[in-house]
Sequence to fold (242 residues):
Amino acid sequence: MTEKPASVNSTRERHEPYAVLLLVLLLCTDLVFITVHILYSLTTFFDNPLLSLDRELGYPELFQYIKWFWVIILLLYMTVSTRSLRYAAWVLLFAFLLADDVFMLHEVWGSRLARLFTESFLTGLRKQDIGELLVSALVTLALLIPVWLSYRKGSSYFRRISRDLFLLLVVVFFFGVILDPVHAAFRSHPVTGFILGVAEDGGEMVAASLIVWYVYLRCVQGEHTGISLAEAVIQFFKWKKG
Fold:
């Protein structure tokens, strides 16, 4: 096995604590928003509806916008620093996620698609819910095509990053898309519906924070110090333990 130059290892060790600190800050902010949302929903401590996780243009949602914007900027930086347009495929996908959140694209397009259905073919779900699910799935799959084409001809470093980002996006997809219709199906059950709502919005926030942290970590490490997502997670817990 070829050892990395001492200067490379030194650079990685110098920057990794900053990436860990960023992740801690992001997750702590997510936890505060989730806690405040629960207190707002179940108590009278807070009366500002903008503190709710499911409020359009609320404080938690604006924080989510900032995360996607940071990911786009970091990926653009990687595109320039590596002189590889392959990262632009990921930029396009995350730009859609940001536009979807800001302009509610899957809700608007899902509503139009729902008009084509004569009735809901899934018990407990509205035609609107089915339309939104189909739109999110189809657009995401379409945007993954340029990612897949870039992956086929990309370097081993790019392929490693793409695999990790895909796994993290699966987590986002689970909370933001799969859990959404499940939550909708339990609207008539207050307790279950509330728990699913917190899990859906809170889980999506945490997943977005992990993506910001991971992309930032890749930026500060550089191409020659890249490690896998699993190794990065292990290092995070080792850092906390230390």
